[in-house]
Amino acid sequence: MSTHFPDISRIAYEGPQSKNPLAFKHYNPDELVEGKTMRDHLRFSIVYWHTMCGQGGDMFGEATAIRPWDAGKTGIEQAKARVPVFFEIAEKLGMPYYAFHDRDVAPHGKTLRESNEYLDTIVALLKEQQQRTGIKLLWGTAQLFVHKRFMNGAATSPNAEVFAFAAAQVKKALEVTHELGGEGYTFWGGREGYMTLWNTDMKRELDHLARFLHMAVDYAKEIGFKGQFYIEPKPKEPTKHQYDSDAAACLNFLREYDLLPHFKLNLETNHATLAGHSMQHEMEVAGAAGALGSLDANTGDLLLGWDTDQFLTDASVATQMMLSALKHGGLTTGGVNFDAKVRRESIDPEDLFFAHIGGMDTFARGLKNAAAIRADGRLGEFVQQRYASWDTGLGASIEQGKETFASLEKLMLEKGEAAPNTSGRQEYLENLVNEFV
């Protein structure tokens, strides 16, 4: 292990009474919750892009972060220097997984060939660190949104050669993800959308995006990559409208183009907010379709209108998320992936540890709270009773397809009026959940 953080040891679980800022208060990886360890429930993943490439800059200001390992280095030399630091952070946090973008672990070259050579250099270092630490690759992805060639999108670009370049880049990213034993591959259409419809053929762009994804599925089979494919919904930013705008839009697209058998969703809390939804809503939409795959563990600032990618520290939100995850069978392929960055004002390297410790503890609290609510049974029983009229008699007959408009009209003409509704008891249920949070 490198020693860029000589004063920080492996982060240990010390319990809720601990005042040590470099200790877990709730995340005990070996603790059993519903018969499975927290480690296996949460499958935490640290991301390369924000952790190593986040410099604290924003659209209004320059970089602020103090990163000694970057000093005096650029290009491939800087990229090589970051690898051992990243794995030191991951190892000391006890992260079982990590995730990366191709152009964040390795720099752009002057040509695609040179970019691929840079990537191969860094992949060899990543593989060495994986073998040394036992940390696995949760998923890889290609960065198809920063370079100016992707100004109009990648798979949805009106320029056919940009589509071809993106295909070549994803081909290489799939190869290195497979080489590193990645358990999945994610597509985030950062600029797959439009700024104005005056210059956009939406149908053609969606057709091209679907063709691109089918090509990826075909190539994965060709090289023997059996990892799960994901799409990550986001409604806007940097484009005015992105085609993968929310979970429902993604599922509709996947069904329309016969891609649903190959994809699940990688859902992000901040993206749900930008779409006007709660993360619980997005998880329920995905879960109901059998497409709940992986989670990007962050949140936004509700007073800011853009994707701030903050570490989640709200145990109530984490409880909602874990209730949905447990309800739909858990994260069987993906994980809780910290697509989050420290604030621009948090400039010290140690702040990376404080941020991840807080996020990991928050999700651990959410998991324990969710399991306790399920064990208590009152919430589940209330929902079950609310729909009791569908379990027998008329409701069961409707669900079984035995009724028609004519038969239902006949019944209501005879009865004259529907049975009275019962209270939804929203306030009671909110109070009930707060007993655990």
In words, what does this structure look like?
It contains 16 helices and 14 strands. It is globular and about 85 Å long. Helix 10 (279-288) runs parallel beside helix 11 (315-327). With 437 residues, it is of the alpha/beta class. The chain folds into two domains: 12-376, TIM Barrel (Alpha-Beta Barrel); 379-434, no CATH class.
Q: How far from one another are the termini?
A: 38 Å
Number of strands: 14
Widest sheet: strand ordering = 7-6-5-14-13-12-10-8
Shape: globular
Low-confidence stretches: none
* Secondary-structure element order, N to C: EEEEHEHHEHHEHEEHEEHEHHEHEHHHHH
Architecture of the largest domain in CATH? Answer: Alpha-Beta Barrel
* CATH topology label of the largest domain: TIM Barrel
* SSE-based structural type: alpha/beta
At the first level of CATH, the class of the largest domain is Alpha Beta
The figure for the number of domains is 2
* Content of β-strand: 5-15%
Q: Share of helix among residues?
A: 40-55%
Number of helices in the DSSP assignment:
16
Short description:
It catalyses: alpha-D-xylose = alpha-D-xylulofuranose. This protein has 437 residues and is of the alpha/beta class.
